[in-house]
Amino acid sequence: MVFKRRDRRPIWRIVASVVYPRGGWARAFEYVKHRVRRLPDTPEKISRGIAAGVFTTFTPFYGFHFFIAAFLARAMRGNILASLLATFFGNPLTYVPIAATSLGTGYFLLGMRPDAAVHQSLGETFAGAGRDLWQNFMAVFTSQTADWHRLHIFYDDVFFPYMIGGVIPGVVMGGIAYYVSVPLISAYQNRRRKLLRAKLEQLGKKKRSADDG
Prior knowledge:
mainly alpha
């Protein structure tokens, strides 16, 4: 069986559209906001889903945010689709302040000094962890010896503080998102219902006038 790409754009353009969507992030945010408002559910359930999605962006489990957000939304009896849409709170424009806040909080809670906690720059720490993963994978097929030293540094200095430190700001931002979104979604849904009733009344009047005529 041969699979054909429907999207004929070059790969680099597809990747670039993920980092910077066509029309810009402002337009992408407007689209997400529009979709969230039109979800067929109660404001409270939608807002619980939003809170779950926002909280998830403060966790270091990149690549699994959709799954974590859906799990949390289900556990909180929130709207799962709203939680998936809310993960867009984490994007290339916000990941740096989110990571800095989570790491800083984690260092504080664990009693670590930020300048002493990371033995090398964050870029080198991530790169070292990646090299360990690749070399250890290749060691399965070659005579190389597996070495987890750089991954241990990454876990101790970045991943674990990030995971612990992301809980507090994640809960705070998720709570803010919930309490802000409930009245906004409620007002939007009430406005939509009023507009729908007005349209139905107009249609009823036209039908009655047509019958009388």
